[in-house]
């Protein structure tokens, strides 16, 4: 009995912390529609600040608490709202998600910059030295008691604020019907600022309560608090009372699992993964949401890729691979070669996220499965194992599609993140086990497994240079496949689904089959990328495939432009070329790198179409100027030749690679402009009619229709052939 | 690259743990030589450290007998992971020790006149192989370093026939590798059990109810399983065996409660100090006291006491070196601290890894000095490999480098809120160390195996 009581108290104090954090999350989500992945990180920052004020500077406890909960945290919340979140209106769930993930990464980087890791930062609990309160059969520490009491007070306070205070009522009004409340004179900006201030203060409170129990460490503290998100899902991110119930369930489950789970080597991981598992289950049984119609017009636009353009792109990628393989030293090849397999993993997101509008935060987990398959079935470098890697990952991907059939947006993101966590914390750490007695599975033998290099017809591709070329060719092929999907029937179905699931269902489209297919394809491609990645690494650990890596690849692909294959390459290049190059060039600022990926993502709100589309626009004049294009290609080839002869070093070469296209595109822009002026002089009335006035200001022509078709990617035949 | 991970965190723990675990391997006092006793012969003599002879001295070197060796300098690779973005500054002590040693040795004239040039190879966790490739092309040896994912670089190193004198090694593949010398062995085939014997004698009742609690990381689990095998062999009775999340727990009370319910008297802990501190607090909170908690040398760390405060009781730590607290003028330990004070006052001197790295550097200098002008990898490797009583100039217990077997001496530290001190009933046989040939246990279980030259199609005869 005393055992049961102890575990109940532990569960309740955990529940209290979860409740405080989750209610803050619900508050910001309902008022602004943004699920803040960085909510936990705000709590983490508050915990560090509390340590700084209380234990480093020795301020009294009440002063610290008032300063943090009453001043700093709310200000920080307001800052977030004004600087970051306000720019996100009218963007898709994906973009919102990437921004908040980037914010999470940014805050972790910031904390590590201010409070360098590796130093002991002891934080005592409240009334640590006082004797625990005696409850007869068991005891409750003052910290536990305070935690539980705080949660109750916070819950009552929230209730009062939302029902008795003017701005609380305004908040609820804004949740119920934003436009109606605006018509009634409520000020939406002020309401959301208040919600963020209050939400961040709650996160800070949770962070301060949880930190003394664990080591003050930025990444683990931020991710620990993520467990609280499961509680918010109980309330479907709307209902505060249900969120509290969810927190209690979650806390007690964790408490009892720790206490009553039998001791054996397979189950500890289950306990660690229990919040994720619970989250996954809750998502599965949540009442089915209505099919999503098109609610907001998004600012996103990805043009249809042309076959010719894709072929050129593929050729450039392969050529790029060859250039890397021939100019870099072996160590550099090992460092930079990883950009292609990671690029393939990012590519796997393009059909899923870019075309179909689904979200997956577990691509690296699929890659891990692919890598494991390659390690175990590909001994001796059997190329057939690559096929197995694709097939087995695709099969697991289909499994994930099951919850996706019912979920979308942020729920899907959380579901896939939960899946990744379950794999990370439990499945990948399992010792050897027997599968239904058929065969033994030993995933990561003693932490890491070796992966053999590909062997085709007795030729072993184990040199770093040959693996770069293989990676580049594979990337080009996968990119081509993705473009074919986009141009084909499936691609149109995916785009339609992204636009409006409700409309698709009405028209009789099989949503089930389509989602299943796209998830399988995406997982299969990620598996292929993982297998190639594993081959380059030669030995893999579960750590290579963690959720945090998935978050980075996801965020950077979206930053690059998730609707186009170029965006995937952008992710690969950013992670494994740009960052290493910068850290080589400017080692002194290396500590700031933690901030970079986060910072780039945060800027996404400005242009949801991604960096690659901006770059492409910059180079667009080149396409219209064959002479500039020719000169550029020849100069690049000449530069490469000079490099091969060792007349210049790699830095000069890289500089040349940047400068030549820039000059060429500048020349092309100038010449295009002069051509335009010439045309303007030839024709009296240059057609400058804006698109929306075509057909009104001047007659509609077949050329306009053709231009429209080109932009929308609708083939002439299908639309007009039957007419 | 910017893998901020959790994972990183985990790795950090893993390496520290294991690194130290191994490092903690018992001490041997050099029975025969004068080396053991702290107060050493060499101290004061330029170019000699502790009990070593003069190992760094001037000379008139000529020619370039091996990769990385010129007439004026020797380039040595030191590995660490300081640039890992998820944990900036990770294992900085390895680079610090390399820097201090190179300055100290070069001040005395270098290795027979050749100056030591340290190439810091920052593996940033995931770039071990790339850095090892660079080392193969540029460096003479790998000395005094270590990488969390060291298994990634072993084959590359063997392929270019470059010996390593390790600061620490983690994975079984690296720990058991060929062409590797560990000044304080972290063997995969034997472990020191002197502290188990000591604890069994002191707390006979506790051996009838011991428990195991381990961080859920593969490298950590291997260390724990090895210890478990050894105490089972000693006839102990296990009543509890559990894992904890490597990232810590939000509340340690349930774990403490389970330990109480299982009536555990002695706990074998394999983890890291912050988490042990939290567990001890939880045990205090529910009013349960253990006879002992046994832990590895990575717990000889101020974090244990700063985080645990008054709850730190009965925590026993086995180490292979005398604690810094007992360093007195004239001892090798004090000489080591003085060198840091002189050459790099901001460096992290009081670290188990730093001390271990320092021993590796001394071993390198000792072996290289004996090669004279004709400095080759083969010569250094063979010179180092034939030392039977290596004590790091008196820094730690004696180790037989021919076998790489766990040493049979150790010292036991008791942690308390006041700090760390050597237990008063150790009955040391050599200086501060207690030695007994029966204090080494030969493992029978399968804990992985090391990479061999044969794996990459080479033999020892290829070493030049």
Topology of helices and strands:
The complex is a heterodimer of chains A (723) and B (464).
Chain A: H1 2-32, H2 39-56, H3 61-83, H4 93-114, E1 133-134, E2 139-140, H5 142-164, H6 166-176, H7 178-183, H8 188-210, H9 218-234, H10 240-260, H11 268-272, H12 274-285, H13 307-327, H14 330-336, H15 339-347, H16 349-355, H17 363-377, H18 384-404, H19 409-425, E3 433-435, E4 439-441, E5 448-450, E6 455-456, E7 459-460, H20 464-487, H21 489-499, H22 501-506, H23 511-537, E8 539-541, H24 547-560, H25 565-585, H26 596-602, H27 611-623, H28 626-644, H29 650-682, H30 702-712, H31 716-721
Antiparallel strand pairs in A: 1-2, 3-4, 5-8, 6-7
Helix pairs in contact in A: 1-5, 1-8, 1-9, 1-10, 2-3, 2-4, 2-8, 2-9, 3-8, 4-24, 4-26, 5-6, 6-8, 9-10, 9-12, 12-19, 13-20, 15-20, 15-23, 15-25, 16-23, 17-18, 17-23, 18-23, 20-21, 20-23, 21-23, 24-25, 27-29, 28-29
Chain B: H1 6-23, E1 73-80, H2 92-107, E2 115-122, H3 128-138, E3 141-143, H4 151-159, E4 164-165, H5 172-175, E5 180-181, E6 190-192, H6 194-202, E7 210-215, H7 218-233, E8 238-244, H8 253-261, E9 266-270, H9 273-285, E10 292-295, H10 302-308, E11 315-319, H11 332-343, H12 352-369, H13 377-385, E12 409-416, E13 419-422, E14 434-435, E15 440-442
Parallel strand pairs in B: 1-2, 1-3, 3-4, 4-5, 7-8, 7-9, 9-10, 10-11
Antiparallel strand pairs in B: 6-15, 11-12, 12-13, 12-14
Structural commentary:
The complex is a heterodimer of chains A (723) and B (464). Chain A has helices at 2-32, 39-56, 61-83, 93-114, 142-164, 166-176, 178-183, 188-210, 218-234, 240-260, 268-272, 274-285, 307-327, 330-336, 339-347, 349-355, 363-377, 384-404, 409-425, 464-487, 489-499, 501-506, 511-537, 547-560, 565-585, 596-602, 611-623, 626-644, 650-682, 702-712, 716-721; strands spanning 133-134, 139-140, 433-435, 439-441, 448-450, 455-456, 459-460, 539-541. The termini of chain A are far apart. In chain A, the strands form four sheets. Chain A has a two-stranded antiparallel ribbon. In chain A, strands 3-4 form a two-stranded antiparallel sheet. Chain A has a two-stranded antiparallel ribbon with strand order 5-8. Chain A is 69% helix and 3% strand. Chain B has 464 residues and is of the alpha/beta class. Chain B has helices spanning 6-23, 92-107, 128-138, 151-159, 172-175, 194-202, 218-233, 253-261, 273-285, 302-308, 332-343, 352-369, 377-385, and strands at 73-80, 115-122, 141-143, 164-165, 180-181, 190-192, 210-215, 238-244, 266-270, 292-295, 315-319, 409-416, 419-422, 434-435, 440-442. The chains are: A mainly alpha (723), B alpha/beta (464). At the A-B interface, helix 1, helix 4, helix 9, helix 10 and helix 11 of A face helix 1, helix 3, helix 4, helix 7 and strand 8 of B.
């Amino acid at each position: 009995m005393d055992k049961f009581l102890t575990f109940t108290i532990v569960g309740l104090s955990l529940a209290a912390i979860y409740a405080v954090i989750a209610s803050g999350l619900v508050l910001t989500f309902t008022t602004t529609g943004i699920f803040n992945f960085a909510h936990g990180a705000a709590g983490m920052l508050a915990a560090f600040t509390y340590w700084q004020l209380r234990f480093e500077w020795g301020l009294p406890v009440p002063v610290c608490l008032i300063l943090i909960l009453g001043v700093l945290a709310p200000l920080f919340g307001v800052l977030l709202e004004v600087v970051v979140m306000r720019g996100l209106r009218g963007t898709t769930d994906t973009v919102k998600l990437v921004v908040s993930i980037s914010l999470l990464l940014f805050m972790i980087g910031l904390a590590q910059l201010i409070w360098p890791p590796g130093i002991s930062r002891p934080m005592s609990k409240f009334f640590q030295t006082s004797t625990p309160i005696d409850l007869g059969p068991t005891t409750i520490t003052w910290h536990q008691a305070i935690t539980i009491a705080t949660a109750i007070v916070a819950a009552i306070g929230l209730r009062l604020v939302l029902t008795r205070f003017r701005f609380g009522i305004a908040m609820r009004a804004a949740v119920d019907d934003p436009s109606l409340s605006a018509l009634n004179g409520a000020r939406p900006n002020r309401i959301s600022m208040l919600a963020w201030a209050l939400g961040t203060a709650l996160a800070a409170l949770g962070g301060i309560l949880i930190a003394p129990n664990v080591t003050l460490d930025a990444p683990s503290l931020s991710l620990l608090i993520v467990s609280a998100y499961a509680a918010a899902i109980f309330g479907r991110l709307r209902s505060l009372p249900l969120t509290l119930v969810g927190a209690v369930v979650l806390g007690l489950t964790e408490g009892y699992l720790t206490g009553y789970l039998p001791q054996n080597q397979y189950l500890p991981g289950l306990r660690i993964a229990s919040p994720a598992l619970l989250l996954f289950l809750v998502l599965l049984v949540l009442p089915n949401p209505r099919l999503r119609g098109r609610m907001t017009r998004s600012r996103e636009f990805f043009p249809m890729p042309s076959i010719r353009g894709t072929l050129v792109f593929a050729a450039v990628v392969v050529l790029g691979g060859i250039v890397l393989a021939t100019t870099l030293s072996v160590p550099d090849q090992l460092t930079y070669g990883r950009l292609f397999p990671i690029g393939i993993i990012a590519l796997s997101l393009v059909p899923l996220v870019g075309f179909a509008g689904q979200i997956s935060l577990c691509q690296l987990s699929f890659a891990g499965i692919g890598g494991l398959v390659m390690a175990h079935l590909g001994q001796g470098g059997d190329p057939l194992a690559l096929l197995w890697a694709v097939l087995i990952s695709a099969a697991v991907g289909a499994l994930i599609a099951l919850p996706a059939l019912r979920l979308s947006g942020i729920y899907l993101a959380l579901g896939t993140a939960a899946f990744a966590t379950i794999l990370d914390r439990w499945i990948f750490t399992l010792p050897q086990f027997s599968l239904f007695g058929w065969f033994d599975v030993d995933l990561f033998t003693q932490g890491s497994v070796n992966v053999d290099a590909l062997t085709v017809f007795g030729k072993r591709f184990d040199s770093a240079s040959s693996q770069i070329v293989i990676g580049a060719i594979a990337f080009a092929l996968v990119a081509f496949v993705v473009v074919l999907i986009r141009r084909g029937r499936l691609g149109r179905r995916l785009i339609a689904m992204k636009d409006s699931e409700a409309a698709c269902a009405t028209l009789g489209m099989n949503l089930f089959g389509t989602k299943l297919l796209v998830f399988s394809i995406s997982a299969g491609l990620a598996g292929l990328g993982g297998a190639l990645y594993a081959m380059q690494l030669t030995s893999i650990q579960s750590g290579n495939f963690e959720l945090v890596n998935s978050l980075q690849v996801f965020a950077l692909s979206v930053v690059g432009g998730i609707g186009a294959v170029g965006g995937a390459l952008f992710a690969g290049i950013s992670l494994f070329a740009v960052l290493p190059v910068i850290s080589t060039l400017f080692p002194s600022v290396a500590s700031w790198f933690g901030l970079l990926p986060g910072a780039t993502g945060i800027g996404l709100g400005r242009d949801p179409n991604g960096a690659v589309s901006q770059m492409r626009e910059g180079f667009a004049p080149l396409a219209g100027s064959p002479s500039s294009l020719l000169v550029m290609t020849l100069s690049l080839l000449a530069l490469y030749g000079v490099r091969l002869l060792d007349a210049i070093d790699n830095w000069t070469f890289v500089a040349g690679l940047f400068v030549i296209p820039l000059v060429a595109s500048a020349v092309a822009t100038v010449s295009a402009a002069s051509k335009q002026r010439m045309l303007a002089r030839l024709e009296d009335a240059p057609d400058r009619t804006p698109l929306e006035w075509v057909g009104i200001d001047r007659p509609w022509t077949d050329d306009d229709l053709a231009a429209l078709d080109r932009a929308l990617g609708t083939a002439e035949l299908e639309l007009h052939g039957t007419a | 690259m910017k893998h901020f991970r959790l994972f990183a965190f985990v790795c950090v723990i893993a390496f520290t743990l294991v690194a130290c675990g191994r490092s903690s391997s018992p001490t041997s006092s050099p029975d025969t030589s004068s080396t053991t006793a702290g107060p050493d012969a060499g101290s004061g003599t330029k170019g000699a450290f502790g009990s070593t002879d003069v190992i760094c001295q001037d000379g008139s070197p000529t020619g370039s007998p091996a990769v990385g060796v010129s007439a004026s300098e020797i380039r040595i690779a030191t590995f660490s992971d300081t640039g890992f973005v998820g944990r900036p500054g990770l294992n900085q002590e390895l680079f610090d020790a390399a820097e201090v040693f190179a300055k100290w040795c070069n001040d005395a004239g270098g290795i027979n006149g050749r100056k030591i040039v340290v190439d810091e190879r920052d593996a940033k966790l995931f770039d071990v192989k790339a850095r090892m490739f660079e080392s193969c092309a540029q460096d003479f040896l790998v000395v005094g370093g270590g990488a969390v994912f060291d298994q990634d670089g072993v084959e590359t190193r063997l392929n270019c026939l470059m010996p390593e004198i390790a600061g620490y090694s983690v994975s079984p593949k690296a720990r058991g590798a060929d062409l590797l010398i560990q000044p304080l062995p972290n063997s995969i085939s034997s472990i020191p059990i002197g502290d188990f014997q000591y604890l069994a004698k002191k707390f006979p009742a506790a051996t009838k109810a011991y428990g195991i609690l381990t961080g859920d990381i593969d490298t950590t689990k291997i260390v724990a399983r090895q210890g478990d095998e050894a105490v089972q062999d000693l006839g102990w009775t296990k009543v509890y065996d559990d894992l904890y999340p490597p990232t810590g727990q939000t509340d340690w009370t349930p774990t403490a409660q389970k330990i109480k319910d299982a009536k555990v008297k002695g706990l074998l802990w394999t983890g890291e100090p912050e988490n042990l501190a939290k567990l001890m607090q939880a045990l205090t909170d529910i009013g349960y006291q253990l006879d002992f908690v046994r832990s590895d040398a990575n717990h000889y760390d101020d974090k244990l006491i700063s985080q645990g405060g008054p709850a730190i009781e009965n925590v026993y730590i086995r180490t292979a070196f005398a604690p810094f607290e007992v360093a007195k003028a004239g001892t090798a330990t004090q000489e080591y601290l003085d060198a840091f004070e002189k050459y790099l006052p901001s460096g992290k001197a009081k670290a188990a890894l730093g001390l271990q790295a320092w021993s590796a550097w001394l071993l390198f200098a000792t072996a290289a000095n004996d090669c004279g002008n004709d400095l080759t990898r083969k010569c250094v490797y063979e010179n180092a490999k034939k030392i039977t009583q290596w004590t790091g100039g008196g820094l730690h217990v004696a180790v037989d480098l021919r076998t790489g077997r766990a040493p049979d001496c150790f010292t036991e530290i008791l942690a308390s809120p006041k700090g760390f001190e050597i237990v008063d009933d150790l009955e040391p046989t050599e200086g501060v160390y207690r030695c007994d040939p029966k204090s080494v246990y030969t493992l029978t279980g399968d804990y992985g195996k090391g990479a061999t030259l044969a794996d990459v199609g080479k033999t020892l005869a290829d070493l030049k």
